[in-house]
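Expect chain and fold; see below:
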Amino acid sequence: MDNLWVAFILSIVEGLTEYLPVSSSGHLVLVGDLLNFSGEKAATFQVVIQLGAIMAVVVLYWGRFWGLLRPQQGVPFAGLRGIWMLFLTCVPACMLGLLLHSQIKSLFTPSMVLIPFVIGALLMIFVERRQFHPRYETLDDMTPGLAFGIGCFQCLALFPGFSRSAATIMGGMILGARRPLAAEYSFIAAVPIMVAATGFDLLKSLHLFTAADIPFFAVGMIGSFISALIAVKAFVRLVGHMTLVPFAVYRLLLAPFIWYFMVH
């Protein structure tokens, strides 16, 4: 792990795709395969550099995260109530992730990415074509039931290629959240689940690495932090004015190239 350009390229891919409904893990697997960067250490690196993208959301939504620790009167999504809802969102995927950790890591291959990649795109088009009636407008309208329901949909993201962002945004919309709310909650709910997944994976794989790998990880996390800041800001501006369909079309257009160059 001495090629810092590989770390830099993958960090940009991670940051730009982590919070968009296009599957960051799928893109990392595919780009990593093109760069001949694969194997157990590569899979762990692809998980760990998510820490940079996580910090980008913490910075952008610092007020909301601070409110979880120092709640203000009249702000429902704060304090213990906000923490409880994030906990409910995390539980389903955390439980399945713990039970199926080794099986999930074995899915990080181009051939296994392709099917969830396409299915996720088709589901996005299906959800956008349905006429759901939003009942929840802002984060302060969130309920424990909605939070847990979104957490159940988040389990789809355990399949690399599906996209955690797509799963949670679609789940929120199906359950009655407006698209901007579903996207915003997707960003915030990503922090605890990704911290848990990253920490668990790193502890399980720590024996694979040495101090010489630190610069590689540092480049990866810094690059993903900066690119995620840009991607989240851009997506927040777009999500109120556009549907998920363009992202679904992008995935469907990319699928044949994945099949031809990496799977077939």
In short: Residues 179-205 form the longest helix (27 residues). The chain has a mean pLDDT of 87. The two ends are 28 Å apart (CA to CA). DSSP finds 13 helices and no strands in the chain.
